[in-house]
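Forgive a beginner's question, but would it be possible to get any protein sequence you like and the tokens describing how it folds?
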Amino acid sequence: MKFGVFLPVSGRAAGPVLMEAARGAEALGYDSVWAADRIIIPWEIKTVYPYSAEGRFIVPPDRPFLEPLTCLAFLAGCTEKIRLGMSVLVMPYRHPLYWAKIATTIDHLSKGRLVLGVGVGWMVEEFEALGVPFKERGDLSDEQLRLVDRLWTEERPRFEGRYYRFDELAFNPKPLQTPRIPLWVGGEGARAQRRAATYGDAWFPYFVRITPRELAARFENVRRWAREAGRVPERIGLACCLPIELSMKPVAQEEDRLHGTPEQLVAALRAYERIGVEHIALQFMVPSWPARLEQVEQFAREVIPALRERAPA
């Protein structure tokens, strides 16, 4: 099982420590770094945030939030081997010809290290500010994925859809990775699972609380729908984003939460490994960067090596 860590692309630390954070994660042995997507933050958000217990978005509007594709392009030249991940690109916010070109550019600049998480978004107010129909975001995203597949695989792609249309055009270069840049489809519900089954290389949900057993059951839906779509289910991977908190002393364990000492976390993560999770992007739930960095370093020193030892029989 591989591990990634979310980058500080938002908050007061955004910018000044970005390069340090990515290079540090690479030196510590993490497999990937991840940038979250946000273009604007309204001063008033009525939409319930699905990824916190309180239902409130966690970044205040007066704090910086860097554009993630720009950050990954910058980090392509600052790092050497670590995978550069987007978690996740909100597809309706950008024209697919535009984001597909940027992704392909990053793929070449990084020598094939980009992993593109994609999703449909959740914040009504941000959609309204960008002039994008919120209720059509699912259909719009599905069409984008069909369009981008043609851009990346056909020599003279053309497209005629409900939202996008163009005659034959040249789109070069094609992705450096073959057959394409990995598309990991985010989202937790049934439609997201079906989208991953139809278009994705992996299902890539973000769960605040979920047991390995529940995650495995939902992934079975993905593979069932992949089979119905005429795809090979075993070729679709399982990755996920999970919040994590390290503690100095042992804490009561909950099967649907990553919280505890390094030893407790090793045991908890073994359960995800057993159900076939291939990659976990970790969001260390510490507000200040220095304290978060301590946990990132401790996890790399004490948890990753233990997990990569032979699992107990």
Notes: The chain has ten helices and eleven strands. The chain has a mean pLDDT of 96. The domain at 2-308 is CATH 3.20.20.30 (TIM Barrel).
